[in-house]
Design a protein that fits this description.
The complex is a heterodimer of chains A (362) and B (376). With 362 residues, chain A is an all-alpha fold. Chain A has helices at 10-27, 29-32, 35-62, 69-84, 102-124, 129-149, 177-198, 202-212, 214-219, 224-250, 260-273, 280-295, 313-328, 332-347. The two termini of chain A are 21 Å apart. Chain B is built from twelve helices and two strands. The radius of gyration of chain B is 23 Å and the shape is globular. Chain B has 376 residues and is mainly α. Chain B has helices at 13-33, 57-88, 95-114, 127-153, 160-181, 221-243, 245-255, 257-262, 267-292, 299-314, 319-339, 352-366; strands at 209-211, 218-220. Chain B has a domain at 62-299. The chains are: A mainly alpha (362), B mainly alpha (376). The interface between A and B is large, with 50 and 56 residues.
């Protein structure tokens, strides 16, 4: 492990400062922001940021762009919904209603999702690049159809009312959204720190070796598919955290939450933020959710037909922004930030930049 | 020594044997074991929708034909995807959106030609009114594909992931614009826009059942026409790829892009041709399948999945792979939908998607490059 705290460049100093400000702002969140911002936009940013971070982890350190993270996110939510909810009068209508203790259900949901992730990873581990993308996309679509068609565990309407069954050590989330806010914030920070830790462990270093030189690593005696599988399992674990937070936040999970548009949305989040750096996950989530919340009201001539009820503007705008990001800066906003800083330091005026992109969380 | 000795198995053969046994069991189940549900309800693990092939050959034949005819439509769509992928290494994630757009354009043309309302009765459609929508929709989508390839994909050739992301962005935009603008020319406001489900109609002469003289089965002529179209597309592609100069260049490009262009061949022109043709095949497939079933917003994902599964199973970038993948996928899909045990399941649960997943997992476990793909 390298302690580069002692010799940090001006760039890392700026980033640390921005990160610290973002963290302080986030910690004061419910006091600083109004309710809509704190309980809708920021919670959503934190939890989708975790899912996006799992995607970026695989891409940045494993060289695998996975479209299965949304599916794993949904799988965790569905398992939790099946295990924790109770049926009967006042209960939820769908699912198995096993009525387990929510803490046990939480642990089992995360463990099962990680196991499913390991299985997914093992199947896809020998394929790389574009093949990996295609295979994980089929995971995602198949999960959607599985949830839709297997009415025993979900069905098209999905499971509702999950947020009423939370562990006692977290307490009632529907009545106290600030609790959920801090749970999500802690989970986001935990995710960030955990990823930063894992990539510096021998496993993380080997994974980066596998990313760059799979053949060479293989001849050095490393088990390449095993490392890819384990990385995928780790990412599934992170995605499951996000899925659990999501069902606590929205209360429900349905095939519609993991379908192709949602899968693409998560990819858009990760790409807007930047596929090369973990911080991009929350930056991308923040940007995406702001667009989602504030562009919905607008209509653009020739792009929509006035209403936003049936498609129309929002997805087109997201699609165009996505296209522009991919065309202009394939490593997203974080890439723009890196290049802007590099350009400034070349000019020799390195210093805090006024137009620094806002960062939230982690 | 006279006793029979079991051959020693090495580690690699064990999973192969397990898979072999599973496949043999599935075949035996469909052919011999399956039983119709008893009239009293209930049943056991042998209970399925239909009886086994031996007891109930009519149903078996019908499902067999359903599978093979669906494979025809599947092949038309997926071969376009495979063509683009095989030559250019571009995973055209917008293939499903192109499919959908092609289907809606054809629907608008057919509706305008027949002067019918929202639903177009087959009896009101003649051959011409089916062929013209096809001949309009396919070039339209070919043009969209051409613009995509020339404008957005040509200059970043070789950056596979970036190109996949670009086509995803296009699919998002196209799919959303379809919802905003189609179907256009419908009679009531409620049916207008929003990507409502619409269906094209086959020409009137296909709307009858052919007596096959086997087990008393009468089978839809339209579905047989669909199979015929699939075979025709396959044959045309084969002739084009293996018997013409352009096809030769394309196959050379698949094998070694740099060498092909070093020989003085304009590989960019070949790329454009492949992308245009691949996109047009998406529209062709859409017209065919929308005539049999329907098209609606959201099906872009389904057809992208279909194309992906066919290409992953069959092997990347091979026409035979696409055919084999389409047939295998169609059979797995149709047979698992009807022959999985139904006892104990509730009304609406369909486990066939799990079998599809198992198919992909198995193929990838043994041949990561697909059945007909070449490693590398």
């Amino acid at each position: 492990m390298r302690w580069n705290v002692l010799r940090s460049s001006p760039k890392t100093t700026i980033e640390r400062a921005i990160g610290a400000i973002a963290l302080v702002l986030a910690a004061l969140g419910p006091l600083v922001f109004n309710q809509y911002w704190a309980h809708q936009i920021l919670i959503e940013t934190f939890l989708f940021g975790i899912a996006a971070a799992s995607l970026i982890f695989l891409s940045a350190y494993g060289g695998m762009v996975s479209l299965a993270q949304t599916a794993l996110f949904g799988i965790a939510g569905v398992i939790l919904g099946n295990l924790a909810t109770r049926g009967g009068p006042g209960g939820t209508s769908k699912g198995l209603h096993l009525g387990w203790d929510p803490t046990v259900a939480l642990v089992v949901a995360i463990a099962m999702t990680t196991a499913i992730g390991l299985m997914f990873g093992a199947i896809a581990a020998r394929s790389i690049g574009i093949y990996f993308l295609m295979i994980t996309l089929t995971y995602s679509v198949i999960t959607t159809y599985f949830l839709g068609q297997v009415t025993l565990v979900s069905g098209f309407s999905g499971i509702g009312g999950i947020n009423r069954y939370t562990p006692s050590w977290i307490g009632d989330l529907t009545g106290h959204p600030n609790r959920l806010y801090y749970v999500s914030l802690v989970a986001a920070v935990f995710t960030y720190v955990l990823i930063r830790y894992v990539v510096r462990t021998p496993f993380g270093i080997t994974l980066q070796g596998v990313r760059d030189e799979p053949v060479r690593m293989s001849s050095l005696g490393y088990n390449v598919p095993l490392h890819r599988t384990l990385a995928f399992g780790f990412a599934a674990f992170l995605a499951s955290l996000s899925g659990v937070l999501y069902v606590w936040w929205s209360g429900q999970i349905a095939p519609g939450n993991v379908d192709l548009p949602e899968t693409i949305s998560l990819l858009v989040i990760a790409v807007i933020g930047g596929l090369a750096r973990i911080e991009g996950a929350w930056l991308g989530a923040f940007a995406f959710i702001i667009i989602q919340n504030y562009v919905r009201g607008f209509t653009f001539p020739f792009l929509g037909f006035g209403g936003t009820l049936f498609g129309g503007s929002f997805n087109t705008v997201i699609g165009i922004i996505f296209l522009l990001i991919v065309l202009i800066s394939p490593d997203g906003l974080m890439g723009i930030w890196d290049r802007a800083l590099a350009a400034r330091s070349r000019v020799g005026r390195a210093g805090p930049s006024a137009e620094a992109p806002a960062r939230t969380g982690g | 020594m006279t006793g029979f000795r079991l051959p020693r198995l090495n580690r690699r053969q064990v999973p192969l044997l397990v898979v072999g046994a599973a496949v043999v069991f599935a075949l035996a189940y469909v052919l011999l074991i399956a039983q119709k549900p008893p009239a009293t309800g209930g049943g056991n693990w042998r209970t399925t929708t239909f009886g086994s092939a031996v007891d109930d050959p009519g149903s078996f034949l019908r499902i067999f034909l359903d599978s093979i005819t669906f494979a025809g439509a599947l092949f038309i769509v997926a071969s376009g995807f495979a063509l683009i992928f095989g030559l250019m290494r571009v995973v055209n994630m917008a293939h499903g959106a192109f499919y959908l757009l092609g289907g809606y354009i054809a629907y608008e043309i057919q509706q305008a030609m027949t002067g019918q309302g929202f639903a177009i009765p087959t009896s009101q459609v003649n051959t011409w009114e089916w062929v013209v929508p096809l001949l309009v929709a396919a070039p339209c989508i070919a043009f969209v594909g051409f613009v995509t390839q020339q404008g957005l994909l040509r200059w970043n050739q070789g950056q596979e992931l970036r190109q996949a992301l670009i086509t995803i962005a296009i699919s998002v935009i196209v799919a959303d614009q379809i919802i905003a603008h189609f179907p256009r020319a419908t009679s009531t406001v409620a049916q207008k826009f929003g990507g409502n489900a619409v269906s094209l109609s086959w020409p009137g002469w296909t709307d009858r059942f052919v007596n096959l003289h086997v087990a008393g089965v009468h089978y839809s002529l339209a579905r047989l026409v669909m199979l015929g179209l699939g075979i025709a597309v396959g044959l045309a592609l084969w002739l084009w790829l293996y018997r013409t100069k352009t096809g030769m260049v394309i196959r050379a490009g698949v094998d070694d892009q740099k060498m092909t262009s070093a020989l003085g061949i304009n590989i960019q022109r070949t790329f454009a041709i492949a992308f245009v043709l691949g996109s047009a095949l998406a529209a062709f497939g859409a017209v065919v399948w929308a005539s049999q079933a329907n098209i609606a917003a959201g099906q872009d994902g389904q057809w992208l999945l279909n194309s992906l599964v066919v290409v992953i199973v069959g092997g990347m970038g091979s026409i035979f792979g696409a055919a084999a993948g389409a047939i295998l996928y169609a059979f797995v899909l149709n047979f698992s939908a009807t022959y999985l045990p139904t006892a104990g399941a509730d009304c609406c649960t369909q486990y066939s998607i799990v079998v599809t997943f198992a198919l992909i997992a198995l193929v990838l476990a043994f041949r990561p490059q697909g059945l007909f793909g070449r490693p590398g």
